[in-house]
Amino acid sequence: KDDCYFEANQCSKISNDLIRDTCVANLAEMKQDLAVCDLIKDDKVKASCTHKVAVVTNNQETCKTIEDQYWNDNCNFQLAINNNENEFCPFIVKVEQQLDCRKEIALATNDPVLCEYLGTVEKNQCINSIARNTLNVELCNLLEQPINKDVCRKKIAELSDNKEYCDLIGYKQVKEDCLAKFEV
C-alpha cells in the first residue's frame, strides 16, 4: 500500500516513517523547495533532502546548512563538479573526496595548478593528462622525474605531429624513439 502512495507522490498517506520521509525528499527535489525538507523526521533523510534541493537548484549556500558531514561533503562535491568550481572543494572535510574534487575539476578545466594539491603519483598523472589534452609541451616541465618529462614530451610530439618537440628530449633512447615516429 505504501509503495502505491510512494509512486503516486501521496506522501502523507504513507504509514512507514522512512518511506514517507523518502517520498517527501523526492517531492522537495521535484518542487525544488527546501521548505518541504522540514517535513522530514529522520535527520539523515532530511540532510539528504537538503543535498538534493541544493544540487537541483545549484545553490552552494544551501550546502552550508547541512549539519550531517557526509551529506554536506557530498553536496559541496556535487556542486563543485557540476560547476567546475574549485572554490567549493575546500568545504569538503573528507580529504580523499576533497582531492578527488580538485582532480576532477583540474581534468575538466585543464588547470594544472589544481594538480598540485594531489600526491606525487596522482599529480604527475593529472599534469600528464592535461599536457596531452592541451598539447602543451611546457606542462611536461612540471613533472617530477626527468624521464617522465621526456616521455611526456615524446607523447606531445606524437599527438601534435610536431617533430621539433623531440629536440627537447634529454634521454637518448626516448629521443631516438620520438624521432623514429616521424621517419617515413
Written account of the structure:
This protein is mostly helical and 184 residues long. Helices cover 61% and strands 0% of the residues. The chain is built from ten helices and no strands. The protein has helices spanning 2-7, 17-31, 34-37, 43-57, 60-63, 69-83, 95-109, 120-134, 146-160, 172-180. Helix 4 (43-57) packs parallel to helix 6 (69-83), helix 6 (69-83) packs parallel to helix 7 and helix 9 (146-160) runs parallel beside helix 10 (172-180). It starts with a helix and ends with a helix.
Task: Give a brief rundown of this model.
This protein is mainly alpha-helical and 184 residues long.
Number of helices: 10
| C-alpha-based Rg, rounded | 24 Å
**Model regions low in confidence, pLDDT < 50 over at least 5 residues:** none
Helix residue percentage: 55-70%
Please report the total strand number as a whole number: 0
CA distance, first residue to last residue = 73 Å
The coarse silhouette is elongated
Question: Would you tell me the structural class of the helices and strands?
Answer: mainly alpha
Q: Could you report the average pLDDT, rounded to the nearest whole number?
A: 92
The topology string of helices and strands comes to HHHHHHHHHH
Binned strand content = under 5%
